[in-house]
Amino acid sequence: MLPAIAHWFAAADTTVAPLIAWLAVAIFISGLDDLVVDVVWIYSRLTKPRRPHRLSGGPQAHNEPRIAIFVPLWHEHEVIANMVEHNIAAIDYRNYEFFLGAYPNDQPTIAAIHGLERRYGHVHVSLCPHDGPTSKADCLNWIYQRMLMYEEETSQRFSLVLIHDAEDLIHPHSLREIARNAQQNDMIQIPVLPLPTRVHQFVHGIYCDEFAEVQIKDMIVRRVMGSFTPSAGVGTAYSRAALQKLAQASSNRVFEPACLTEDYENGMRLHGLGCSQAFVPLTRSAKGFLATREYFPRTIRAAIRQRTRWVTGIALQTWERHGWRGSPGTMYWFWRDRKGLIGNPLSLFCNLVFFYGLLSGIVAGLARMPWDLCRSVDPSIAAATFYIVLFRTTVRMMCVARVYGFIFALAIPLRSFCANYINATASFLALCHFVSAKVRGRPLVWLKTEHAYPSRGTLVAHKRKLGEILAGSAYVTERDLKAALDTQPDGVRIGEYLIKVGLLSQENLFEALSLQQGLPTGPVHPLEIASATAHALPRRVVKYWQVLPFKISDGSMFVATPEIPCDELTRELRGLTKLEIRFQLVTPDNFKRLVDVI
Fold first, then answer.
1. How many domains are there within the chain?
2. Structural domain boundaries, residue 525
């Protein structure tokens, strides 16, 4: 049996051998292209050492430029409330407003936005005049119009517009850093990094690998080579002057509705209009990297769907709309951004040939037959290709290790096989969708990615420290806070200790916790609670978790608690009721009175 299999492989090798020779040359040429970027990056770091980037020193509260945060939505009712609540609690900036875009045929999302409007004075709904989904750019254009109406109604003008998605974690210092850079730039891009996941989650790990390398290396090299800075779609801020230039150049279309990747398009358009662009270097602080963090798709199907949109917009639509015009640096990065149409399928084919060759070699070895396939490639080309691939992998591992750690970076070679399959499939589907739309004369529609918002436990690292809020809001002096931190006993929380030593009241503590956690606070009177509502949860749950229902309204159960809700509590309550859970912080004394009376 084995000799027959070996002879079959020997015959097949004669067909595969010429392909391997051509693939080796293609990999070598592509590797040289990648090597150019690596060499420019290393050279720029050696010749122009980057100065330590400080996150402090931004505008003070009294002269903060006014920022409008745009969030386009389509079927995001399950995540938008958490996104807004968390970011309002985390952002270390005061002068901003949220404008949330929705479509008339997406009533659950509209209802979620109205709920946020009732709770927060600086959250506004922006309703598109037509059903969706259309494109993200179309939704953004209508949000922009809503902002202009708001300015007319209030006589307040926004200096900057910041774009985010419904799953984004905004770094506490992002808005302050944007305001600092806006003094000299028309477009500011904050780095974007996927949240860390376990090593075995290969699909999400692919995003971690790629974004780490792009944010650390490629974005810097683009600037060095004189190319444009593409917007990442989130964490991008535009000055009003830049938005007006975009509007004047495109019949008032600030964001191009026909584009599936309006973010990339705007970066290119602004560069062509002579607007200055800034990419904020990836910097680590006590609150982690200054970057917009989010979860990306974790399934192959979802990743292919998202990347199909990216390839369609960046590689095909931009090519169709703008061709190959621009400076040498811009032309080179056009090639880099579009070569995936060929490189992605080629990479998958290389993987298939690699596994075939591996199997062929094993069979030849077991059958003690000569393996002619290994001699099909010129040794010099094989060696050069090997060393280029080794160098490229090392560079990527350095970038990934800086953000996600050395252990995570070790799995890059394994994740690359999965990445090649996803990218090749996305490239094929992008071509099919693009050609089909052209033949049928139909517009390309928004291929929305399903979004998942991080759990409360994941969000803890991104919230402002309680002591920072207490001192910043003048509940305690910085001197008293420092003294309390120096004498704080083990196992006693700082808020409880400040109350114990008489420096803080329970009411002030819970006001600060409300700001930190993005949860409402305020006293609940026992006489306002109906008996049926108070007993809507089992007694054991009320006693163990320190929670008490006090109102049921609009499909929500409002729950009073003196503790910060955790993920385990939320999961247990969702298993007991189909109503949406809304927490409200109350002081321990208030909660004790409620439990004693009910």
1. 4
2. 519-598
